[in-house]
Prior knowledge:
Function: Involved in cell division.
Transmembrane segments: 35-58, 70-89
Number of strands: 0
Shape: rod-shaped
Family: Belongs to the CrgA family.
Structural class: mainly alpha
Number of helices: 4
Membrane topology: Multi-pass membrane protein
Strand content: under 5%
Distance between the termini: 55 Å
Keywords: Cell cycle, Cell division, Cell membrane, Membrane, Transmembrane, Transmembrane helix
Largest sheet: none
Amino acid sequence: MPESRVRKSTESKKKHKAAAEATPKKVKAPSSRRWVPPTFITVGLLGVAWLIVFYIAGYQIPFMAALGNWNILIGMGGMAAAFGIATLWR
């Protein structure tokens, strides 16, 4: 019949505990993420508004007419950026 495992002695447990306490603990500075919700809502709405303006009157506005279909990328990019910012929210 196999022998059971020998338990660690109290001394080795104390050594391990002392070594763990000797390492400095990293303290995280408190960070405020209150800017995230208003920022991602604003950026997302700007992206949607850009697309709406482009579809309704895009070719009547000179700089939008010059951009052509790049306006779609700009609007979708704004919405994608809003999603990326939203991942920072805690």
